Amino acid sequence: MSNRLINVLVPVISIILGLLVGAVVMLVSGYDPVAGYIALWNGIFGDAYAIGETIRQISPYILAGLAVAFAFRTGLFNIGVEGQLIVGWFAAAYVGMAFELPKIIHLPLALLAAAAAGAIWGLIPGLLKATLKVHEVIVTIMMNYIALYVVNALIKVLANGGFKTEKIHDTASLRSDFLSELTDYSTLHYGIFVALLMVFVMWFILEKMKLGYELKSVGFNENAAQYAGMSVKKNIIMAMLISGAFAGLAGAMEALGTFGNMSTRAGFTGIGFDGIAVALLGANTPLGVVFGASLFGSLKYGANNMPNAANIPIEIVSIVIALIIFFVASGYIIRVGLQRISKKKEAK
Amino acid sequence: MSKRRFGLALSLVLAAGTVLGACGSDKEEGKGSDKGSSSDGGNTSEFSLGMVTDVGGIDDKSFNQSAWKGIQDFGSENSLKKGDGGFDYLQSQSDADYTTNLNALARRDFNLIFGVGFLMEDAIDTIAQQQKDTEFAIIDGVVEQPNVASVLFKEQEGAYLAGVAAALMTKSDKIGFVGGMEIPVIERFEVGFLAGVKAVRPDIKVDVQYTGAFDKAELGKAAANRMYSSGVDIIFHAAGGSGNGVFSEAKERKSADKDAYVWVIGVDSDQYDEGQVGDENVTLTSMLKRVDNAVNDIAKLSKEGKFPGGETKVYGLHDEGVALADSRGAIPEDVLAEIEKYDKDISDGKIEVPGEK
Hints:
The complex is a heterodimer.
Chain A: H1 3-28, H2 33-45, H3 48-73, H4 81-98, H5 103-132, H6 136-158, H7 177-182, H8 191-208, H9 210-220, H10 222-227, H11 232-259, H12 271-281, H13 286-303, H14 305-310, H15 314-329, H16 331-347
Chain B: H1 2-43, E1 49-52, H2 63-77, E2 87-90, H3 97-107, E3 112-116, H4 121-130, E4 135-139, E5 148-153, H5 155-169, E6 174-179, H6 184-200, E7 205-210, H7 217-229, E8 234-238, H8 243-256, E9 263-268, E10 276-277, E11 280-281, E12 283-289, H9 291-303, E13 312-315, E14 322-324, H10 333-347
Parallel strand pairs in B: 1-2, 1-3, 3-4, 4-5, 5-13, 6-7, 6-8, 8-9, 9-12
Antiparallel strand pairs in B: 10-11, 12-14
Helix pairs in contact in B: 2-9, 3-4, 5-6, 5-10, 7-8
């Protein structure tokens, strides 16, 4: 069996397996799996509106996935994407609301603010890791909580004790009437193009720039990189900085596209944590992240239609979606299985 | 040879898929025909209504549940069935789902759609402008659109009575208040409650704490633990699902020590069942927010073509929008009579309960 065939078969088989086990769960709980999956399909691709909303959901996932993947290539585990996303969301919402500028300056400024805020939030664990060897997993997790509660407090100050910021000005908005009308008044916005541009940026940095080469070297082997004359410290800081910027932009998607403001949050958005899975599904490559994010985003949005159209309670839906993702993520087992089968044949 | 084996493996997978798929489709037919008949039944009446919950869900034993009860009641009065053409709900998993859920219901051609909760203001505002033929109602919020009715409650009046009850019943002279998020609605509970306590006993100290969330029972439990440990004996919660943690803390204390004097005043729905622990019960009473009455009222108006679009309806003690629940013996008769006096004074307008800090 050729490698190419295996590469195609693995995801296909894992999705089929995930769907089958999900179907069993629905059957056992007394719901109709066929109606359920039809509802899921329609929820993702059913009409222009659904497609628009699905793409809208995918955009922040791409950026969150990129953020995790980028740090991972330098050997860093950035669990702080969630916090970086939240500060980015707030920064974009603030710039969008507080300034009055022409669109051509305002929108890029709001995006930059989000990226900068995320980058600063990523920089702190980077600095601590590079100078004091504090493990980035611990620092980034704690920074998530700091971000959540600091931003909640800031929103209150901005809103005079209220619980949400004012809406951003139109000049900072990623929303477009064109895209909205095209998709039957969905909340689809230009953010998807920003996300795809960043996919290219990540590819360019990693594959075409000296910086990317150094970052990857540090990721492969710190000591070897140092021996070759690269500054490990500088590269760790750079990696967290850029990773944080991607995460901040993911927050800008919510601020400038989906919501147009920010409300105080009782808990995390979950996008940052899902970003970890997105990056791992995508093998930490830019293009892989796009696929991972598409899978996550579609399932996440499409799943909402299962209670709506097939009367399956949201709890069962969550289990089914988790199973599908579980099987996709464990594609490695299937790959090993397939290889073993083909090897046995060769031996004979 | 190797290809053939592989082919066999692949066809096995596919076969398994078809077999299992077939199991599913058999059931689909059965259910499908059921559904057909039920929607036929629903179509006899031309009015249909739906609601979108916030993240609490319809079994939050509180606010969403009460709204859903109102819709179900309306449904059974008008012999509607759950589903298209009758009544239905969608639960939001996060704030990103508000708009899409509202839109999903509007697309299923429900005539009237309720958004339950203050947090849904922006989403209703947006969707109401896109779906101009659908009538919307928002509970606990105000949206100024011609096809949106806004429903508010005078929570402070009910909370005032709860405060009176707590002040009359406390033995330690320490009372607690656990709120959800610090938003105007919950602040009305707090202000009314404090005013009620003060009216009876100005010297009592009320410990006020907010959990910052409506769906985090563990935070409610932690707050209650701290309060009871500091000597508080009655806690009034206005924290939706987080308040369930207040109950579990009180119940733990009650089951550890049967004579412990700990009480919870429930909110929104009658939370008597929530407070049951063995043969004892920790629920002193509940401040009912009759969302069900309001929902029913708006639905009736809408069905009769008198939908109060663009208006704000306020339901208070006088219009049975808020009330205290049956205490089932937890509050003695003489105290109840005392509470009744305050009740009457508020209804008659003799006492004006403040609604803001």
